[in-house]
C-alpha cells in the first residue's frame, strides 16, 4: 500500500524513459560511448526541440545541462561577466522564494566580487509584490530573477505581468525565470512572459531522469554571451572567443550523460503528446482533491492558498511538520518535509515548516484514498 506524492521532488519516469536510457547504455557497452553518442546525435537535437516546444522557444535556444542550478549558473555568470562584473559591482533583484541553490550561487559570487542582491517583498496572494519589485529595479540593475512557482508552495507568479513592467526601468538587465516547478506542469510561453532566460531540471513535473536540466536562452542573448566554461572546440584570442557554437549549445559541456538526456527527450515528447493543458487541469483537480482530504482534520492546518497547484502544503499543530511527514512516509505515503528556515529558503520567503504533497496527472484516486487513510492514522 503506497502513494507517491513527491512529484515536485523527482517524479518517477515512465517505462519508455527508462527503456531509452537502458538501450543507450547497452549501445555504449556494445560500440563505445563516443560512437553511441554519434548515433544518437539527431535524437539529442530533437530533445532540444521538444523542450523548446514546451516553453515556446526555438530548438537553437535550448542548452542542455545537469540540472536547474547548473543551467542558471552557466548563463547568469556569463551575463554578469559581460556586464563588467569584474570591473564594477553587480546588482541583482530576486523574489523572496528564490530557491536556495540559486541564492547560494549568488552569495558565493558575492564573496569573490562585489555583488549586491536585493530581495523583493512577498505579496498577500503568496507571490511577489509588484511595488516592491518596482522600487528595487532601476537602470543599474544587472539581472532580475523570479521563481515561477516556489519549491515550498504551489502558487504561480504572473511573470508575464511583472517582467514587461520592469523592463522599461532596467533595459539592460537580464530577466530570468526559474521554471523548475512549472515546466511540464503548466503551459509556458517565454515570448508572452517576456523573459530572456528560463531554466529547469528534468526530474520534476517533466518526469525526466535525475541529473538533467536545461536553459532556454533567447537567441540574441545566447549568441552574445561567452560562457565561463567554453564549449569544446572554441578558441580564445586576446579578449575574444572564437568558433563558439552559434546557438545556446555554447552553454553545454562536451561530457554529459547521453543516456539521461535521451531519457529527458522521451519524457518531454511524452508531455507534448499528452498535452500540457491536459496535464495542468488534471494536476489542478488532484490538488483540489488533496485539499478536501486535508481540510477539517484534527491538528492539520493547511498552508498556501486555495488555488495552489502541484504543491499542496500543511503543518500539524500537535506533531509538527517534520514528525507528520515521517509518519506519512512510514505509512507508505511519499511526501517531502520542507524546512521553512535556511538553507531551504535563504531569500527569506517566510514559509513555515511544512509537509509537501505534490500530485501529478498520474495520481490515482486510490493513492488519494491511501493518503486519507494514512492521515486518519497519523493525526
Ligand atoms: C523552484 C526550484 N528551483 C530550483 C531547484 C533546483 O534544481 P536543481 O537541483 O536541479 O538545481 C528546485 C528543486 O527543488 C526548485 O524547486
Number of helices: 14
- Top CATH class of the largest domain: Alpha Beta
Task: Indicate the low-confidence ranges by residue numbers.
Answer: none
**Largest beta sheet, briefly?**
7 strands, mixed
Bound molecules: pyridoxal-5'-phosphate
Proportion of residues in β-strands: 15-25%
Tell me what the CATH architecture of the largest domain is.
3-Layer(aba) Sandwich
**Overall average pLDDT:** 94
End-to-end distance? 19 Å
Bin the helical content: 40-55%
With strands numbered from the N-terminus, the spatial order across the biggest sheet is 2-8-7-6-5-3-4
- Looking at the structure, what is the overall shape? globular
**CATH-defined superfamily of the largest domain:** Type I PLP-dependent aspartate aminotransferase-like (Major domain)
Number of domains: 2
Q: What is the oligomer described by this structure?
A: single chain
> Which structural category fits the helices and strands?
alpha/beta
Amino acid at each position: 500500500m503506497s502513494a507517491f506524492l513527491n512529484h515536485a521532488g523527482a517524479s518517477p519516469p515512465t517505462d519508455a524513459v527508462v527503456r531509452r536510457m537502458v538501450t543507450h547504455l547497452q549501445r555504449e557497452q556494445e560500440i563505445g560511448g563516443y560512437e553511441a553518442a554519434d548515433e544518437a546525435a539527431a535524437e539529442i537535437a530533437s530533445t532540444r526541440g521538444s523542450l523548446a516546444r514546451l516553453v515556446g522557444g526555438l530548438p537553437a535556444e535550448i542548452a542542455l545541462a545537469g540540472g536547474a542550478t547548473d543551467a542558471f549558473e552557466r548563463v547568469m555568470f556569463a551575463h554578469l561577466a559581460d556586464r563588467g562584473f569584474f570591473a564594477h559591482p553587480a546588482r541583482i533583484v530576486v523574489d523572496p522564494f528564490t530557491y536556495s541553490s540559486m541564492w547560494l550561487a549568488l552569495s558565493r559570487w558575492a564573496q569573490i566580487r562585489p555583488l549586491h542582491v536585493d530581495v523583493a517583498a512577498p505579496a498577500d496572494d503568496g507571490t511577489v509584490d509588484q511595488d516592491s519589485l518596482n522600487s528595487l529595479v532601476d537602470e543599474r540593475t544587472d539581472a532580475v530573477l523570479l521563481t515561477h512557482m516556489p519549491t515550498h508552495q504551489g502558487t504561480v507568479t504572473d511573470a508575464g505581468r511583472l517582467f514587461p513592467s520592469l523592463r522599461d526601468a532596467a533595459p539592460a538587465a537580464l530577466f530570468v525565470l526559474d521554471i523548475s516547478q512549472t515546466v511540464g506542469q503548466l503551459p509556458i510561453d517565454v515570448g508572452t512572459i517576456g523573459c530572456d532566460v528560463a531554466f529547469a531540471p528534468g526530474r520534476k513535473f517533466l518526469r525526466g531522469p535525475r541529473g538533467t536540466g536545461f536553459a532556454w536562452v533567447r537567441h540574441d542573448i545566447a549568441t552574445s554571451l561567452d560562457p565561463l566554461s567554453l564549449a569544446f572546440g572554441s578558441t580564445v584570442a586576446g579578449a575574444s572567443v572564437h568558433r563558439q557554437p552559434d546557438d545556446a549549445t555554447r552553454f553545454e559541456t562536451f561530457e554529459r550523460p547521453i543516456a539521461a538526456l535521451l531519457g529527458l527527450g522521451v519524457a518531454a515528447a511524452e508531455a507534448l503528446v499528452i498535452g500540457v493543458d491536459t496535464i495542468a487541469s488534471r494536476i489542478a483537480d488532484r490538488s483540489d482533491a488533496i485539499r478536501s482530504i486535508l481540510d477539517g482534520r484534527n491538528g492539520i492546518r493547511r498552508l498556501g492558498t486555495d488555488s495552489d497547484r502541484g504543491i499542496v502544503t500543511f503543518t500539524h499543530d500537535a506533531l509538527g511538520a517534520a514528525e507528520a511527514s515521517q509518519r506519512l512516509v512510514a505509512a507508505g505515503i511519499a511526501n517531502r518535509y520542507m524546512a521553512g528556515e535556511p538553507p531551504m529558503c535563504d531569500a527569506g520567503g517566510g514559509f513555515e515548516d511544512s509537509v509537501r504533497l505534490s500530485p501529478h496527472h498520474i495520481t490515482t484516486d486510490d493513492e488519494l484514498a491511501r493518503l486519507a487513510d494514512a492521515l486518519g492514522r497519523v493525526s
